[in-house]
Fold:
Amino acid sequence: MRKVIILVISIFLSFCLVPYSTAEEKSINGKDCVCPPSLGSAPNFNLKNIEGKKVKLSDYRGKGVIIFFWATWCTICQRHIGELNEVYEGLKKEGVELISIAVGDTARKVKRYMRNNPIEFPVLLDTREDVSQSYVVVGVPTFIIVDQAGYIQFQNHFWPRDYQQYLCQIK
Structure:
């Protein structure tokens, strides 16, 4: 019995010590790059922005994208919006796109919210919550980083100040 327990423990530990995944080499716009291990392919979406224009994730192919899922009733989201407004121009200069997706809110409600809480970056509407479900968003705020090749590199409830480490590095 003792040998069986030791065997089970050693097998378990061997799986824990083996790295889950290593950096991947990919090609983006014909250039080779090295990417951190991904959480899988980012599902494409087709949402309307608050002006009614359709926007797809695939419109941003070849660029790093930070997706911010939020809601008008979320006070923590409001703090993050302020932080994101401050870094938005810097992100654009780095070639990183920032888009926000309002979960469950109508355009009217988001526009009313934005009168008192300006948002400098694009706002898309996920009124039926289809996109948030496809990304398995469990609560807001949720940040997702999609690298230039379209792979999810980060998903969590906090703003990743070290976001650059999750984007592919062009060789």
Remarks:
- The longest helix spans residues 75-93.
- The CA atoms of residues 94 and 130 lie 30 Å apart.
